[in-house]
Write a structure and sequence with these properties.
By secondary structure, the protein is an alpha/beta fold. The protein has ten helices and eight strands. The protein has a single domain, classed as Rossmann fold (3-Layer(aba) Sandwich), CATH 3.40.50.
Length: about 270
């Protein structure tokens, strides 16, 4: 069997709210098979395992978007070599766009990314998905966990109850409320941490993707993000995953999503 050609750009995977970074392990294994060096560091405050993070949720209190971006930027600048490719899901997709726009990444894949500043669409399913946090102003300063029922609506709406409950039990962790409050108020804040320069031409390529049945970040939202980029000259592409919800990176169909990312990266020379 021919060994894959070693890639020069490492790949960093960034998780979103409520999912531990270890859920990226199947992706890492696949990308390593294709010649990439990979890592999936957690957010500042994450424990090394799902259990450790659940046991110490207060470590994530008041962790916001800017702190998360700075955390990954520091990790990147601390390592010599080629800039990484960033693959991010949900809020990880928003962080990926910020790292790309600020010159910390060579390319980025944003999967069902949390909306950036400038997006006006606010579908009902997005409001309902965020309500476990946004429904209580005190959650701005603390972490919140999803029940299996809340997870089923927000992440597992296209899955059987059995698969959704299994993913909830294996991968969910408490999530800080602050990023959701910051994102919800982005259009009312001049210096919102969710602001991304969508007109920047001098940056690497970006792939935005969306599951057509996503409740947490609905297709309409990601299409609007793509529209913001389309007004500029930057290299930005869009891909839809038909019939997929917000669990698409961790459910039984994860490999289909990963293969799209790998094919796109290969097309872009990474």
């Amino acid at each position: 069997m021919t060994s894959p050609t070693a890639k020069t750009n490492p790949v960093i995977f960034i998780h979103g709210l409520w999912i531990h970074s270890s859920a990226w392990q199947p992706w890492e294994d696949l990308f390593v098979e294709r010649g990439y060096v990979t890592s999936a560091p957690g957010w500042p405050g994450d424990g090394g395992t799902v259990a450790a993070t659940r046991d110490n949720p207060d470590a994530l209190d008041n962790v916001g978007i800017a702190q998360i971006v700075e955390h990954y930027a520091d990790l990147i600048t601390a390592v010599d070599g080629d800039k990484p490719v960033i693959v991010g899901h949900s809020f990880g997709g928003l962080i990926a766009q910020e790292l790309l726009a600020t010159g910390h990444a060579a390319a980025a894949v944003a999967i069902d990314p949390a909306p950036i500043k400038g997006v006006k669409a606010l579908p009902f399913s997005q409001l309902r998905s965020g309500f476990p946090v946004l429904g209580n102003p005190a959650n701005r300063h603390r972490t919140v966990s999803l029940t299996d029922t809340q997870f089923k609506y927000s992440f597992g709406n296209t899955l059987t109850e059995e698969e959704s409950n299994d993913l909830h039990a294996r991968w969910t962790i408490p999530g800080p409320g602050l990023p959701l409050f910051e994102d919800a108020a982005a259009n009312f804040s001049k210096h919102s941490p969710a602001k991304v320069d969508t007109h920047l031409a001098d940056r690497g390529p970006l792939l935005l993707t969306s599951g057509t049945e996503d409740h947490t970040v609905p297709l309409k939202v990601t299409k609007e993000v793509f529209g913001l980029y389309a007004k500029g000259e930057s290299d930005t592409e869009f891909h839809e995953f038909e019939g997929r919800g917000h669990s698409l990176t961790i459910d039984s169909g994860w490999r289909d999503v990963a293969e799209v990312a790998l094919t796109w990266l290969g097309k872009k020379g990474f």
